[in-house]
Amino acid sequence: MASLAPEPTAVSSTADAPILRLGGVTKRFGGATALDNVDFDLRPGEIHGLIGENGAGKSTLMKILSGVHAPDEGEIALRGEAVRFASPAEAKARGVGMIYQELSCMPQLSIAENVFLGRQPTSGGVVSWKAMRAAAAEQLGSLGLKVDPRAPLGSLSLGSQQMVEIARVVFSGAGIVVLDEPTSALSGPESERLFAAMARLKAQGASLVFISHFLEDVLAVADRITVLKNSRKVATLANAGLTKAKLIELMIGRDADALAESYAATGIDLPPPAAGKTVLSLRGLEAPGSFSDISFDLHAGEILGLFGNLGAGMTEIARALFGQVVPAAGEIALDGKPIRPRTTRESKRLGIAYLSENRRKTIFPRHEVYKNISLAHLDTLLGPVLRPGPEVAIAREQVGRTGVRPANPLLNAGNLSGGNQQKVVLAKWLTKRPKVLILNEPTRGMDVGAKREVLDLVKALKAEGVAILLLSTEPETVLAESDRILVLSRGRITREFAGETVSKDRLMEFA
Amino acid sequence: MAQQVPVGAPVGGQTAQPRSTGSALDWASRNARLLAPLLTFVFLFIFFSLVTDVFLTPQNLQNIVTQIAPIAVAAVGITFVLLCAEIDLSIASIATFTGVLGAFFFVGDAVALGTWGIPVALLIALALGLLNGFLVAYVGIPSFMMTLAMLTIARGLSVYVSEGKPIFDVPPVLKALGSVSSQVLGIPVIGLFALAVLLLGEFVLGYTKFGRYVYMTGANREAAEMSGVDTRRVIMVSLAISAVTAGMTGLLFIGRLSSANPAAGEDVLIFTIAAVVLGGTSLFGGEGGIRNTILGLLIFGILNNGLNLLPNIPITFKQALQGIVLLAALLLNVFALRIERVRARTE
């Protein structure tokens, strides 16, 4: 069966000669420099972590490695030979494979078909299914995934789908694999499995670039780590002896102690339950297949954290509150009155605001920031005739309040970094003070500084009396600001933490 | 709050500032969507002015306006639909059907409504548009398939109502509107009517909440939904608007021709969509607008007219030539937008 797939590209005999080397790479977009004279080298059989804040140049570097962009200056050497990738296809043909944050698999096709996407083995023009399935099973097995290759890909968990994608890239002959934020959508055990698979690939001689915001993850698997900051390289360091605090210091150059708060690992004390007015109350809410028996109260001026792994049902609860799903059973009451929103518009009018976890579903990249911000409350903010003046003024105020940078509401939202796009989406819901603000992974993919800003803003809203529901699969985010915490697992509430000491371990215990 | 950013202050920091300079090239690439059709228009205008004798005469310019005016009205509706990232293939059939109905009610063999037949015919067009819209937005039939079915239905109804024969009498008000000789200050009235509809479209799309919802729904329907926009209603209303403007086009046509022919008007669909897309409105929604549509109509009108005036070109080759020039204009659009896109890509 091995004959079906090209072997991962042979490792160069000189152990430390880089398999891929970037020298003095500079990339500009318009007048902005996205990468400034950056050197980067990848050794055969190593996992190379790449970290930096949002906008530091990670994505640009990755796109240059994968042939999406060509550098303006500098050179790329692959196995000692100068190359210039004209397209991602060319990079792929030279053995550089990409695993993007958003998976590019076909969920309706079978697992085997996905592994062999675009290069099904044939005999006499007919796809040889048997050979294909066997080879796919073998390849996935070598990554530690035991599945039926005939099952549709969509039936797997997100983590397993990612594994299939990795198998596809490796199987197509990539000796160099670039992984962009591969753990951001994975649960703890799934991440562990991914790391094991990465270690196996490394043992087989593949070289991996691992881009991540999760510094623990990078520290757990990387051999060396390159830190980017403000489009420049700060350092490339061997992992041995590095700490998270040290990495944070290198990334942002600020005092790392100040950040300990948002990364509480030792445990925090939840405040004693306050007797705020009940704003939102759920009783026995149920949606088959998503969640069941969900009951809780949310008070004015309170942040209620919801913690659980991916697939615990938190997003579905949020969608039910925002009128996107009508629950099969149970009751929702807002200010004591029963409600049953059926459209997002209805929920919005009731004073419920929802910040979705999926940025692609919330931002209008090719429209101005001010149009992004004014959209949610356009019907009540402005008079019958839209004029740019007042609209931009409102947006400018919100941009200032949420700390969007650059603070220019006339830019297209797509020109902002991911963290700033998220702030724009938050700003959209603050043009009118909501009664209930549902935040689903509000800080995911944000750098430490932006995270702090968003959480401070949430605190300020809480002080104004907004009832806030904070959903996250990152324990740090929930621990950072919550007054009470509910842990969900498989669609049910498994534990409520209130007025006690709670730590990351305790949360994960019930998830 | 961690940091209050002073409003309007220049902000540095780690986020790359992509729009740095105000150079002419910068400006041009940012406005590529309007600039490319504008250049095409200017080029064609100068070209035909120089190469032909007749092009730049008042009579000929009036002709162009009269020819393009009915298409312009339907183009307004199609602009709404394309901005929503939907399509309406039924406009030509709805135009013909509305025209046939207008004449049918006027002649009054079966139902005599006289001139009141005009608003009734438009209401029927509206009903068909709402049906399109309801089935697309609320039931979930793709607009391509739904409006294809409607195309057949409306065409069939035209034949049924007219018994397959042209009706040779139409309301005088439509005749007066459609005639080249009805002019105000040398501008055909039909052109002024079309201009009024275009301006109304520009107002609704550019300056009202509904217009904004149209753009945002087309740009990213899910994000619009997540902002509490009732995207289904937006799509339904856009398809209804498209049917009504198509109906007006049909009525203008019967006025210009002084008869309603159930077999005519098939060209309207291709002409309208071609003009709108030529103007730079995206087929994928969210970008473009009435300004683009106006430019597209002008290009289309000049091209249609100017090619007929060119000497030494066999008449039989005209249509192919027209297609080739259209293709060239579209290529120019695509290249211009590619420049814009490359520039807009930051990290």
From TrEMBL, chain A:
Report domain ABC transporter positions.
Answer: 20-255, 274-511
**Source organism (scientific name):** uncultured Thermomicrobiales bacterium
Query: Mind telling me which InterPro entries this protein's record contains?
Result: AAA+_ATPase, ABC_carbohydrate_import_ATPase, ABC_transporter-like_ATP-bd, ABC_transporter-like_CS, P-loop_NTPase
Does the keyword Nucleotide-binding feature in the UniProt annotation? yes
- What is the protein's membrane topology class? Peripheral membrane protein
Superkingdom of source? Bacteria
In terms of SMART domains, this protein maps to: AAA
Q: What keyword terms does UniProt attach to this protein?
A: ATP-binding, Cell membrane, Membrane, Nucleotide-binding, Repeat, Sugar transport, Translocase, Transport
Q: What Pfam families does the database record attribute to this sequence?
A: ABC_tran (PF00005)
Q: Which GO terms describe its molecular function?
A: ATP binding; ATP hydrolysis activity
Report the protein name in the record: Ribose ABC transport system, ATP-binding protein RbsA
Indicate where this protein resides in the cell.
Cell membrane
Concerning PROSITE patterns, the annotation shows: ABC_TRANSPORTER_1, ABC_TRANSPORTER_2
| One GO CC annotation | plasma membrane
User: Which PANTHER family does this chain map to?
Assistant: CARBOHYDRATE TRANSPORT ATP-BINDING PROTEIN MG119-RELATED (PTHR43790), D-ALLOSE IMPORT ATP-BINDING PROTEIN ALSA-RELATED (PTHR43790:SF3)
